Amino acid sequence: MSATIIDGKAFAAKVRGQVAEHVARLKADHGVTPGLAVVLVGEDPASQVYVRSKGKQTVEVGMNSYEHKLSPDTPEAELLALIDQLNNDPAVHGILVQLPLPKHLNEDLVINAINPAKDVDGFHISNVGLLATGQKSIVPCTPLGCLMMLREHLGSLAGKNAVVIGRSNIVDKPMAQLLLRDSCTVTIAHSRTKDLPAVVRAAEIVIAAVGRPEMVPGDWIAPGATVIDVGINRIERDGKNVLVGDCDFASCAEIAGAITPVPGGVGPMTIACLLANTVTAACRANGLAEPEGLTA
Ligand code: NAP
User: Fold this and answer.
1) What pLDDT does residue 14 have?
2) What percentage of the chain exceeds 70 in pLDDT?
3) On the chain, which terminus has fewer CB atoms closer than 10 Å, C or N?
C-alpha cells in the first residue's frame, strides 16, 4: 500500500473540538447555547442508531439536544406542526428530520417546511439554490466533510480534475457544487456514463458515492489521485458482517496518493459537520461572527 490514509475519525475529533471551543465561547460571552432538534419518524434501526449518535455527540460538545420520536404512522399534518413549533422556538438553532421518512410522508414537503436558517442538513430548496449560485448557505454535512478533508490534504483545489461518481441530491450534486466553487474542473458520472473507468482515470480527485460495494477497482484510479470513498455498504464476508465502501480499498490504496478508509473516513465527518452547521446557524441567528474553518 502506498497511499496516505486520510483519517476521518481523527479529523472529526478535531472538528468536534473546534465546535466545543466555540460553543463554550458562545455561552460565556453571549449566554447562547446552540440547540439541535432531531426528529425521527418510525423505527428504522439504522436511523435509530444515527439519531442516538447525533444526540450523544451534540451533548458532548456542550450543545442542547432535543429528540422528537414519532410513531411510524404519524400524519403529515402532525409532523408539519412539530416543524412549525421548532421553527418558532428560539432555543432551537438547527432542525434535522432523519431520512428516509415512511412512505406516506412527502419528503420534499417536509424538508421545505423547515426554516432554511435552521436547516442544518442543507437540503432545503433555498439552501440548495444558494449553494448553486455561490451564496452563503448551509452546506449538506457529508459533502462538507469531504471538502474539509480534501482541503486539509491537498491545500488549494484550484484547477484539479475531479469526478463525482453518483448524482444524488444529498451527496453528489452539492459535492460537485463545492468542488466547482473551489475551482476544480468537475465531472458528474452516473449509471448512464459511458466508459466510467476512463472518466475516473482522468481525475486527480475521485469522490465515490454510489452505494455499490467495492465497485471502483484500483486500475480505474490515476496514480497519485486523492480518493474520497463516501459509500457505506454492509456485506457478508467470511461469515461476518463487514462495512465496505464503494471503492476496493486494497487495490485503490496501491495506486492512489491518498484515500479515505471505510469505516473511519467520511462517516465520522458527517456528524462532526452537523455539529459545525448547528454552531454556525446559532451564530447567524444571533448576529455573531461565525467560527472559522467550520463551513465551506
Ligand atoms: P443514491 O441516492 O442511491 O445515489 C447513488 C448514485 O449512484 C445515483 O446517482 C446512481 O446513478 C449512481 N450509480 C448507481 N450505479 C452506478 C454505476 N454502476 N455507475 C455509476 N453510477 C452509478 O445514493 P446516496 O444516498 O448518494 O448514497 C451513496 C452511498 O453513500 C451509499 O453507500 C450511502 O450509504 C453512502 N452515504 C454515506 C454517507 C456518510 O455519512 N458517509 C452519507 C450519505 C450517503 P443514477 O442516478 O443514474 O441511477
Assistant:
1) 98
2) 100
3) N
Number of the ligand 1 atom closest to the C-alpha atom of 270: 40
Tell me how far apart the alpha carbons of residues 79 and 72 are, in angstroms, rounded to a whole number.
11
Ligand 1 atom with the smallest distance to the CA of 265 is 41
pLDDT of amino acid 184: 98
Residue 1 has pLDDT above 90, yes or no: no
Residue 44 to residue 65: CA distance in whole angstroms: 20
d(CA 127, CA 131): 6
- Give the pLDDT confidence of 228-238 residue by residue, as tens digits: 999 999 999 99
Specify the pTM.
Answer: 0.97
Question: Rounded CA gap, 235 and 12, in Å?
Answer: 25
Q: Tell me, what DSSP letter sits at residue 159?
A: T
Q: Confirm if 207 and 230 have CB atoms less than 8 A apart.
A: yes
The ligand 1 atom nearest the CA atom of 145? 40
Give the relative orientation of helices 8-30 and 141-154 as an angle to the nearest 10 degrees.
110
Confirm whether 98 is a catalytic residue. Answer: yes
- Pocket, ligand 1, Cβ cutoff 6 A: 142, 165-168, 170-172, 189-193, 196, 209-212, 230-233, 266-267, 270
Q: How many CA atoms lie within 13 A of 29 on its CB side?
A: 10
Catalytic annotation on 121?
A: yes
Catalytic residue among 57, 118, 119, 121: 121
Alpha-carbon span 241 to 236, nearest angstrom: 5
- What's the pLDDT tens digit per position in 38-83? 999 999 999 999 999 999 999 999 999 999 999 999 999 999 999 9
Catalytic residue among 98, 119, 182, 248: 98
